[in-house]
Amino acid sequence: MKIERKYQVDQIATVLNDSLRTFRDIQEHADKLSQITNDINFVIGSMIYLFHENDYYKYLGYSTFEEFARNNFEINRRTAYYLKDIYEKIFIDNKSKNIQEGIKRIGWTKARELVNIKDMKELKKWIHKAEEISVKELKMQLKRRKHK
Predict the structure, then answer these.
(1) Rounded to whole angstroms, how far apart are CA atoms 95 and 92?
(2) Which of the four pLDDT bands, split at 50, 70 and 90, describes residue 12?
(3) Is 76 in contact with 70 (CB distance < 8 Å)?
(4) I need a surface site. Which of 19, 35, 52, 142 has the fewest CB within 10 A?
(5) Whole domain around residue 116: which residue ranges?
(6) CA contacts within 13 A on the Cβ side of 12
């Protein structure tokens, strides 16, 4: 399956290299791919959540959730739990479509830093900030927030 997937990726890369001529084309395509990757990560989060919460991975013959995540999604334990927690805390526990859309815009690496903010007003504020700054800066600002 990995060899087949690699072949498909190689074919796509060849087509892209032939069709992308300008920096603007490349940047637009990179932005689209980034958004698609973001969307896929949130879908993976929803699947991981369901498999974890219902022990579905055991029905597939996996002895641990981590083994299931690694073999099916090629992600490590930590990433699997981040994606699961984001899905649970933002898309299950939190019914606000504005929050959910904001989280999708910033991506999972920033979202994982915000999932424990309970106050909706404050969470909206931090999502807005996260759209403007790097993950590293977001972590630093959140750390300062905790120490106040």
Answers:
(1) 7
(2) low
(3) yes
(4) 19
(5) 96-148
(6) 8
